[in-house]
Design brief:
By secondary structure, this protein is mainly α. It has a single domain (3-84), classed as ACP-like (Non-ribosomal Peptide Synthetase Peptidyl Carrier Protein, Chain A), CATH 1.10.1200.10. It contains five helices and no strands. It has helices at residues 3-19, 35-39, 43-57, 63-67, 72-84.
Length: 85
């Protein structure tokens, strides 16, 4: 992984842990970690995560993109695509 991607992963991990249920905050988060199944991120929490990601990375995410984000890797890929535009 390159340094920028490492920074993005650690930033996204911090955001996710901020909104995840307390019992899930100690879990190791990887690209393969599933947001709903592994971290119990529900729709209201996902909205909070998306808003925080938009603010932190100065990007705009579409609702449909957020709805199709199943894993941390999906979210990272989405951030990269939006940041490149």
């Amino acid at each position: 992984m390159n340094n920028q991607l490492d920074i993005t992963l650690s930033t996204v991990e911090a955001i996710i842990k901020r909104f995840a249920p307390k019992q899930k905050t100690q879990q190791v988060i990887t690209r393969e970690t599933r947001l709903a199944e592994d971290l119990e991120i529900d729709s209201p929490r996902m909205i909070d995560i998306v808003l925080e990601v938009e603010d932190r990375f100065q990007i705009s995410l579409e609702d449909v993109d957020a709805q199709n984000t199943a894993t941390v890797g999906d979210l990272l890929d989405l951030i990269e695509r939006r940041a490149a535009n």
